[in-house]
Design a protein that fits this description.
Length: 140
C-alpha cells in the first residue's frame, strides 16, 4: 500500500490529530485514573474501543451543536464544512473531557463525581450556545 503524504490535505491531518487528542487519549486517561485495574487488565484494542465509547458521544453532541448553530450561507463546500464542524466540536470537547481528569489528578473523586462534572460542563456549554444563539438572532 503506497501512501502519498503530499496528497493529504491539511484540514484532514488536523482532523485526524484532533481525533487522537480529543477522543482516544482522554478516554484512555479516564479509564486509567478512574479504574486502574480495568486499565491494567484490558488489552489494547478493547482499551481503545472503551476510550472511544467514553469520549465520542461528547464530541458528537458538540459537533451536532456546532452544526445547528452554523449560519446557512456558509454551505460553500459540504466536505470542508463537515470537517470544520467536527474540528470545532472536538475543540469544544477538550475542556469538557479534560477538566474532570485534572480534578481527579489533584482530588480523589469517584467515577460518579467525574461523570457528574462532565455532564455539568456539557450542560453549561449547551446553555452558553443557547444564549449566544438568542443574542445573535436578536441582533439581526
Amino acid at each position: 500500500m503506497n501512501l502519498d503524504l503530499h496528497r493529504i490535505r491539511s484540514i484532514t491531518f488536523v482532523t485526524v490529530m484532533l481525533f487522537c487528542i480529543t477522543i482516544i487519549c482522554p478516554g484512555i486517561m479516564f479509564v486509567f485514573l478512574f479504574s486502574k485495574e480495568l486499565f491494567l487488565e484490558t488489552d489494547t484494542f478493547k482499551l481503545i474501543l472503551l476510550s472511544v465509547s467514553i469520549t465520542m458521544p461528547i464530541s458528537l453532541v458538540n459537533s451536532f451543536l456546532i452544526g445547528l448553530l452554523q449560519e446557512p450561507e456558509r454551505n460553500d463546500n459540504l466536505d470542508d464544512n463537515l470537517q470544520l464542524i467536527i474540528i470545532l466540536g472536538n475543540v469544544i470537547s477538550l475542556p469538557i473531557i479534560y477538566i474532570p481528569l485534572m480534578v481527579k489528578l489533584f482530588i480523589d473523586i469517584s467515577l460518579q463525581c467525574g461523570v457528574s462534572i462532565l455532564i455539568a460542563l456539557e450542560i453549561i456549554i449547551f446553555l452558553l450556545a443557547y444564549i449566544l444563539n438568542r443574542l445573535s438572532s436578536k441582533s439581526k
